[in-house]
Design brief:
294 residues, 2 domains, 18 helices, Hypothetical protein af1432, 69% helix
Length: 294
Amino acid sequence: MNLLKKFLDYARFSTGDFEKLFANVEMPPCPKVVATLMQKLEEPDTNIDQIVPLLESDASLAAQILRLANSALFGLAGKVTSIAKAVALLGLTEIRNIAIGYAMTTTVKDPAKEGFQMERYWSDSIFRAIFSKKVAEHLGVESDEAFSAALLQDIAIPILMDRWFNLYKDVFETWLQSDRRLHEVEDQILAWNHAQAGAWISKSWQLPDIFTCSIGLHVTSLDEIKRLNLGDNVVGPVALSNKVSVAFQDRSSMKEAELEAKSLGIDGDTLQELFEESKDLVSSIADALGIRAV
């Protein structure tokens, strides 16, 4: 059973259902340059000489690649001054992941609804992306995928707030007034949650299966992820980043986060260390992504 089928069977996620739900909602398309890049990278004979001009054709994407290549996220020696050098140093997989992050940062807009703080949303998303990368490095799994998959995990929330607010309003206002997690309120009121909606967006953008699974399962417990035999890739680090994010906003839930981390073999001291390292990088990575965060 392949990775995506495991997720689809577990979550009962159906593209058709979401197509019906959002039939009258204009969902954002994947930026053309990113969609073209994804298509090119699927072709077996694609080489760097073909990819560099494509990346250079979009000034905003090129600028973001260079900012990230020169950021503390990668710690490269020497200044990276060209797209060709960035591709050579980072590799096509990492460039793909940066481009996927670019797709999110250029697509997701502030819904401008009372109670929703866009800068807080970006700060939390970036923290979780950095934390996921560090956890993945600690576990020896694909850290380059972990960053972008975690950055995307809540992509559906501002989109739902903006384009589906007449129906999503009850969920959001109920959540603001409760101590429950957002996906629990969504499951009760809507019978689906933002993780599943985000997975649908990922699938509609034709992102790699690992991204769709990571987004769709990020609200799931680590024990359940291990039961599904999905704990040996980036799905685990992404899910843990969601638990830690919640825990460190509410210190009373720290014990729960530590228990979740133990499922990945991470003790409390290591969890705290990875958290502090990630928190220290949020501001600089936000600048590299060209977005405002608190």
